[in-house]
Amino acid sequence: MIELPRDGRPPRRASPWVRVLGSISLLGSLAPASCLRAPEPCVADLDEGDVVITEIRGPQDGTWGEWIELYNASGRALDLRGMRGTLERLKGSDIDGEAELTFLIRDALPVEPGAYVVLGTLPLHPTRLPAVDYSINADFRTEPEQVEASGGVIIPPASENADPRALFGSARLRLFACDRMIDSLAYIGLPPDGTLAFDGARPPDAEDNDELCAHWCTDLDSPPQPEWTGATGTPGTPGMPNPPCPAEPSCD
Questions:
Q1: How far is CA 146 from CA 86, 155, 189, 195, in A?
Q2: Given phi > 0 = left and psi -120 to 50 = alpha, else beta, which region is 233?
Q3: Taking a C-beta distance cutoff of 8 angstroms, is the pair 101, 30 a contact?
Q4: Hey, CA dihedral for 73, 78, 80, 82, is it positive or negative?
Q5: What does pTM read for this prediction?
């Protein structure tokens, strides 16, 4: 799992995003701090390469929010409970400082061999987020300056770095089970529409997906799905195989 150096082209600048989300119990920022919720003992029975990062949707318009698609490449049924993930900024990001987001799968999250699971940053919603299987919203890190409104809703400070979505633009994503790194991906910039997707013509593999330029491309495909009727925006293909990438490399 080769990682890119902490350097690269600056991504497209995301629009500031500061709003009160009445239905969200916790909204993260980017200051290094402990998780709001207590950690749990490691229970994830995962080895390196069992779970593969296959698609990422960054900050965009619409109701989908940001999400990460994972593929079960282990050949056996898995429960991802106890798996931890981190998003760490890369040099060239719009985010300042050593910013990082972290999340933990705290509940049972079964995934069959050869199947996909989608982790979203917003609370689950059957119509606005029909393809998201698990919400990682509650484990985002928070700033000391946050203000708690009525009903326990967290309002982030009015600064661009208070937007946890902005870190998705250029980051190193890592997945861990206990102290084992399961998969990692470093990328510079996410598409302003659609998703960054691993080549659907290739079997998802934790080593193969390190080749960002050769094996990743923009997925603008949105096949009609009856359960997506309440969603807006271009989701890509969450929970489904990605379309093949063009033969030409996606970057230099």
A1: 21, 6, 28, 30
A2: left
A3: yes
A4: negative
A5: 0.77
pLDDT digits (tens, 9 = 90+) for 105-142: 999 999 999 999 999 988 898 888 899 999 998 876 44
Domain boundaries, the chain: 51-228
Q: Are 162 and 29 in contact (CB under 8 A)?
A: yes
pLDDT digits over 191-242, tens only? Answer: 989 999 999 999 999 999 999 999 999 999 877 788 888 888 888 999 999 9
Q: Is 244 helix (H, G, I), strand (E, B) or coil?
A: coil
4 pLDDT more than 60 = no
Q: Which residue has the tokens 């330029």?
A: 213
Q: How far apart are CA 184 and CA 73, in angstroms?
A: 14
Enter the tokens of residue 4: 């890119």
Given phi > 0 = left and psi -120 to 50 = alpha, else beta, which region is 239? left
Token pair belonging to 3: 């990682």
Query: Helix, strand, coil shares of the chain as percentages rounded to 5?
Result: 10, 25, 65
Domain 51-228 fold: Immunoglobulin-like (2.60.40)
Check if the beta carbon of residue 187 is closer than 8 Å to that of residue 56: yes
Tokens 């981190």 locate to 86
The residues, ordered by sequence, that sit 6+ positions from 247 with a Cβ below 8 Å of its Cβ are none
User: What's CA 47's distance to the chain center, in Å?
Assistant: 20
DSSP strands (E only) in 96-245: 100-104, 110-111, 116-120, 134-135, 147-148, 154-155, 170-177, 180-188, 195-198, 216-219
Handedness of CA 228, 233, 238, 243 (dihedral sign): positive
